[in-house]
Each structure stands twice: as C-alpha cells, then as structure tokens.
Amino acid sequence: MVGSVISELAGKKSLQVYIDETKAKYAGIFWPSLLKTVPSDNLKWSAVIGDRKAGVAGNVTAFNVSAPLHTRDALREKDGRIPSIRGKRVMDENDLHKYLELSKQNNLDINRVLALIYDDIEFCSIAPHKRVDWMTAKMLSTGGKISFQSDNNVGVVTQYDVDFGMPASHKTGTTGEIWSNAAGSTPLKDLKTNFFEPLADLGVGGGVIRMHPSKVFDLLNSNEVLAKFGLLSNGKTNGIDLSLQTVNNFLTQNSWPTIRPFNASVGIEVDGKVVYSNPFEKDNIVFTPDGQIGSLHVAPIVERDRPVDGVTYAEYNGNLVKKYSKTDPVVEFTAYEYNAFPSFDTIDQSFIMNTARKGSFAA
C-alpha cells in the first residue's frame, strides 16, 4: 500500500474536506473561551503578569517643589518551553481488510469508506485540544499550577511543570466550617470575606466565580444559604428547592460576581485505559475577571513547513493531523501534533478558595 488510505481515495485534500464537513460533530473544547491564541516564532513562551489595581492617587504639593517619586508597579515575567502535544492511532491489517473490501465495490462511496476511519480522524483532531482543556482547567482551579504526573500523562515531563504564582493573600480557606458540612458552613460569608471585600479594595468589578458542580450542590444545601432565602425554619427546609439562578439573581442585584458551574469532561489515557473526569479541582472555587484569563502560546511545527512524501496532512484549529502507512506489517497511522502551552495572565487579579479547608488554602 503506497501512501495513506485517504490519499488513495481522493487526493490530498480529502482529509481536510472530511474534517471540515464533520467537525461540527466533534466533542466540544472550551479553552478558546478562556485563552487567546498567541503565535510564537520558537519553542519558548513568555507571559508578563502585572498586578492591575484601581489606580494610585496623585500627590498634592506646594508650588516650586520637586515632584514626589512614585513606585513603579512590579511586573512579573514567567517563561518556559512550549511542549509538543502528539500521539497517534493505528489501523491494523484486520481494519485495512475492511477498507479493501469496501474500496473494491462498484459505485464506490468515498464517504462510507471514510466513515470506517472516522473515529481515528475525530480522535486525532480533538485530542491535543482536550489536553489544552485539561491544562487550562488545572491552572485555573489550582491557583496557577500545571503538573504532569504518571496518572495524568504518558510519561512524566516535569520540565514543563509550572506555577504562575498567585499571590498568597489571594488563596484562602473557609471562614467557617467546610462546605460539605451543610449545618455549619457559611458559603455566603466565605464569598463576601474572601472574594467580594478584597475585590472592592482592588476596584475590580464584574468577573465570574467558577466551581465544580458538586460545590454548587454544597452551596445550595447550606443552612446559611437556605435561611438567607427563607427556605429554612426551625432547622428544617420547607420543601422548596433553591436554584442557582435565585442565588445569582441575588448576587447580581448586589453588583457581585455570579457563579458559573464548570461543566467539563476530559479523558486521560494511561496504560491503555481511558478515565473520563472533570479536570476542575473539586474542592476549589475561583474568581477571575471578565473575559479571557490568559494566553495559549502556539509554536511552529516543523513538518508543516517541511512535509514528508507519502503523508496526507490536514488542519483542525491549528492542530496538524496526519495519515500515513507503513509495511511489514501493513498498518495505517492517524497522528496529531500541536505545540502549545497556556499561561494564566490575569492571575494577580484572581482569587481561589479551598472549600475543604478551614482558614488556610493548604496545609
């Protein structure tokens, strides 16, 4: 078999055409709503993190005196190397026999043949973007940390671990009991003390509070919250369920940030087994300013500029998708490559609270 299955069918454009025609069916990715894409000319990323406050008042002085010297706000620069996000799937000889059977039929239906390899194309189109989703959720819900371990990545690549350094004063625990304690927890007081009051001092308006869906349930089940909305009397609920919309209406009326559940799922494959879970840290809730929280630094791919003979290429949101064959035994590979890494540019204006620890964010 010379070249890839795709190139045999309809020329080098058919892989791209197939992706373009079917991408609406692909599993959704969320990182574009949180990160802006920043192209890089090399394999390095750099992010400038500044502490944006409401502004410093000018000094009132007498005439004929030297103007007082103001302190410049310190800017922090984080940098590192952009990793490659890559992988591949293989069609063995049994799979290829199915392709050959279809290709020998009269009135060949290319779409039917392509459907045979659809799963591999879809998988390789979205896989690197789901890794970016995972990295984004982790840095957002840990106070700016991304760490690769044997249970979340094939191979431990600690050289790409990063901590964007959220200010210690922005990382807190609960003011009362932890949120899983419905009788003693005080979610509204926690939000006021740990988020709303510091934000008012910084002059930060708007924004959003993100949390794992399980924390939304904890908040809505809290006696403090139920009592606030008149749904608790003598320690018992009146049988009316409280909705998040009701809580958000209350927050909006007071010009406070609203709550948004972080609903997401990413599959992580280790030792051939895929486990799907929400990558947002379950116990942490996070405030970030309105809009995107950071950048996705994207580096060039050598094979895009220097394509290899016999390989069919296509693009999916910057990800280079490839199909090619090898012999002895005959196999067909579908592969992906995306050189990208996120940065948490607004971390100095963000806050995080551990709802499972009283007082401090961590031990």
UniProtKB/TrEMBL annotation:
A Pfam family that the UniProt record links to this protein: Phage_cap_E
InterPro entries attached to this UniProt entry: Major_capsid_GpE
The protein's name in its UniProt record: Phage major capsid protein E
Organism: Pedobacter antarcticus 4BY
